[in-house]
């Protein structure tokens, strides 16, 4: 009995060990013994084929798995994830979440996408993320197609397809040629697409400008209609005016043609005068601009001419021959260089020494002289001068 009991006990222990190894292997395969971090994803729907143990991937690498899916009272789905803690520091906290599938009929999985601007913080335990996109499923396509077909009457749809079949029957070559022509046309306008995009972008501003100017444009068209009507009403007078203009042109042609040579000679004679005026146009402008203030000044309160006078010291008189005027002087206009015509208040323009043949400011010219002889005449009256030598016999004495 003891040996039989020992064998049974050993068999039981062996069976228990085998079962424990199998269970331990299964749990290790499922990752139950691997430490994980819980993260929750909220989505508008989880999808029909989203099951627990679905993979969580980022950039093609598995970083976790789905543990469970709960339906929330607001209609959303809460997908609980078990994330690999060794991968969390590589996943930013603002990671994007998609519920994707390999095919339309394939099982769903969680796809994590890195954002354009990753957050400096990493994903942490207990974080709640929002799913940005759920892949469209085949049942959704069937549901929308069924809703569309339920609103279409089969008899009318059949009649429409029959009409299309009759219209397209025997016209395959023409339709093919039309498609080829359309392809050629699109290939021709393709290089102009950037310019066309620019035109479309600028079109709103142009149309707004036309809309703002629409009242003025309508007014212009209205005035143009009135002008046209006026021309129609006055066509007799317009014909008479045109005949008069034609007669005037004939007379003018005769006058100009007859006097062509004298007019040509006159223009040739005016060349030196116009050249001189062109050379001194600055001085002429100074004269005219200097007279403008008198035009804008108020009129005199009393009739007559108002003049201002002053007494200045006399200058040295001209002497011969150094003060003879110079013919064809080459001084040129200089009024603009002297601040004219706008001379400031209590300002005097500087004196300009030009090439005119004289120089009042030359060396040795005092500018003014004291007439001592005139002063003696004023104080003492006429005074006899010193005796002069007699002429004739060479002796000294009074004349």
What is the number of beta strands? 7
Output the helix-strand order. HEEEEEEEHHHHHHHH
Helix content: 40-55%
Q: What is the count of helical runs? A: 9
What is the residue-averaged pLDDT? Answer: 78
The 3D shape can be described as elongated
How would you describe this structure to a colleague?
The protein is α/β, with parallel strands linked by helices and 399 residues long. It contains nine helices and seven strands; from the N terminus they run αβββββββαααααααα. Strands 1-4-3-2-6-5-7 form a seven-stranded mixed barrel. The longest helix has 41 residues, at 193-233.
In short:
The chain is of the alpha/beta class. It is built from nine helices and seven strands.
Strand and helix layout:
Layout: H1 2-30, E1 37-43, E2 55-58, E3 61-71, E4 77-83, E5 96-101, E6 108-113, E7 128-134, H2 138-150, H3 154-168, H4 172-189, H5 193-233, H6 235-258, H7 260-279, H8 281-296, H9 372-380
Parallel strand pairs: 1-7, 2-6, 5-7
Antiparallel strand pairs: 1-4, 2-3, 3-4, 5-6
């Amino acid at each position: 009995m003891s040996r039989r009991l020992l064998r049974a006990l050993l068999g039981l222990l062996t069976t228990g060990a085998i079962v424990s190894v199998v269970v331990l292997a299964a749990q290790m395969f499922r990752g139950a013994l691997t430490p994980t971090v819980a993260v929750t994803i909220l989505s508008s729907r989880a999808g029909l084929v989203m099951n627990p143990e679905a993979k969580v991937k980022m950039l093609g690498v598995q970083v976790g798995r789905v543990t469970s899916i709960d339906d929330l009272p607001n209609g959303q789905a809460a997908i609980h994830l078990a994330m690999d803690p060794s991968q969390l520091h590589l996943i930013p906290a603002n990671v994007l979440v998609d519920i994707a599938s390999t095919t339309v009929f394939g099982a769903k999985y969680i796809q994590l996408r890195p954002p354009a601007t990753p957050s400096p913080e990493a994903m942490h335990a207990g974080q709640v993320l929002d799913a940005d996109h759920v892949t469209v499923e085949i049942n959704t396509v069937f549901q929308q197609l069924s809703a569309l077909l339920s609103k279409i009457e089969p008899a009318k749809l059949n009649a429409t397809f029959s009409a299309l079949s009759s219209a397209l029957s025997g016209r395959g070559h023409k339709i093919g040629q039309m498609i080829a022509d359309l392809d050629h046309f699109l290939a021709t306008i393709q290089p102009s697409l950037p310019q066309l995009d620019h035109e479309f972008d600028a079109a709103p501003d142009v149309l707004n400008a036309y809309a703002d100017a629409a009242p003025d444009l309508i007014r212009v068209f209205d005035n143009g209609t009135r002008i046209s009507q006026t021309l129609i009403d006055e066509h007799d007078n317009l014909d008479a005016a045109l005949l008069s203009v034609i007669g005037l042109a004939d007379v003018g042609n005769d006058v100009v043609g007859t006097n062509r040579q004298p007019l040509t000679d006159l223009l040739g004679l005016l060349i030196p005068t116009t050249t001189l005026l062109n050379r001194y146009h600055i001085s002429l402008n100074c004269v005219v601009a200097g007279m403008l203030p008198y035009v804008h000044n108020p009129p005199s309160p009393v009739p007559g001419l108002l003049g201002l006078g002053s007494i200045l010291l006399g200058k040295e008189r001209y002497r011969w021959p150094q003060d003879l005027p110079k013919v064809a002087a080459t001084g040129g206009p200089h009024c603009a260089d002297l601040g004219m015509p706008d001379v400031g208040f209590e300002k005097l323009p500087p004196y300009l020494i030009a090439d005119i043949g004289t120089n009042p400011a030359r060396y040795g010219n005092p500018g003014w002289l004291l007439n001592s002889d005139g002063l003696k005449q004023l104080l003492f009256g006429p005074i006899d001068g010193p005796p002069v030598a007699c002429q004739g016999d060479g002796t000294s004495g009074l004349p």
